[in-house]
Each structure stands twice: as structure tokens, then as C-alpha cells.
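INFO batch 0412 | record 1 of 1 | parsing
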Amino acid sequence: MTPRQRRMIRTATRVRDIDPSETQGELNIVPLLDIVVNLMLFMLATSTATMALAEMDISMPGACTSCSGRRSMDLSVTLADQGIIVASSAGQLAPGCSAVGGTPGTTVPRVGGRYDFDSLASCLERVHSRFPEESAMTLTADPAVPYEAVISAMDAIQPSFEETRISAGVR
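INFO prediction complete | emitting C-alpha cells
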């Protein structure tokens, strides 16, 4: 090899200084993506298990109330700030669940800022024993009522009435 060829090979294979703009490097996001994918899989797996355990059989109120040939009483339970209101379109309720203040229904007042779901359950048992043909109850809640209170009301309704309907609350 000639000296000129050696010099060309040395300059071609010599380690050069890196430009300062190339020393910044790139952000390695592979570990971050691993963590995110693992978290997503974990959340998907636990949410399906949670939904399977917390499933409740409910239905929305239907448009036709007298389709079965007999007139329904349209029983309803409303959770409000003042208390729980149990009412019907016929205005008749069982003894112990009589109208309060001339309204067609009864109000189970809040005691110490808490709803009395035991009184609600006993009232609904009396209503169901007086009107055994009624199997549906509509539950309505004020938007300010906590979610736990709605679930507790559903638990109080369920033993007496097989069909619990949920209706949107209005202010």
C-alpha cells in the first residue's frame, strides 16, 4: 500500500468528534410504554371482575303503564333532601304509610341527616302485602343525593318488589 492510500484509510476510519447537537440523545420511552400497557391490562381485568360482581337487574320505566289490561298504581320512591317520598298515582297506600300533609304519598324524614331505610323497607312491605299484584317500583333521586343512598334505597325496595325501575331525577 502506498502512503497516500494509508492516509486515506486512516482519515476514513478515524473517530470524529460528535457535533454538540447530536449529543442530546433521544428519550427512551420503552420502559414507560411497558408500565402503561401493564396498567391497562390490570385495569381491564379488574373492571370486568368488578362489573360481574356488582351487576343488578334493573330496567328503565316503560312508556305503556296499562298494557297488561289492569291499571297499575305507578308506585314510586323518591329520594329528596327532606327525606324519602313513597307515592302512587292512585293515592292509596298501606296503613302506616298514609299520606303526610295532604300529599298522595308518605314522607320518611331524614333522621340526623341520614335516610331511614329500615322504615322505608317496612313501609314497602306493608304496601306490597296490601297490593300483592303490584310488582314494579320506580326509584327517582335528586341529583344532590349521594350514590350510596340510591343503592341503599334499591336494597330496601328489592325484597318487596321484583322489578326496580330507575328514573332520572330532576330539580
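INFO post-check: The CA atoms of residues 91 and 102 lie 10 Å apart.
INFO record closed
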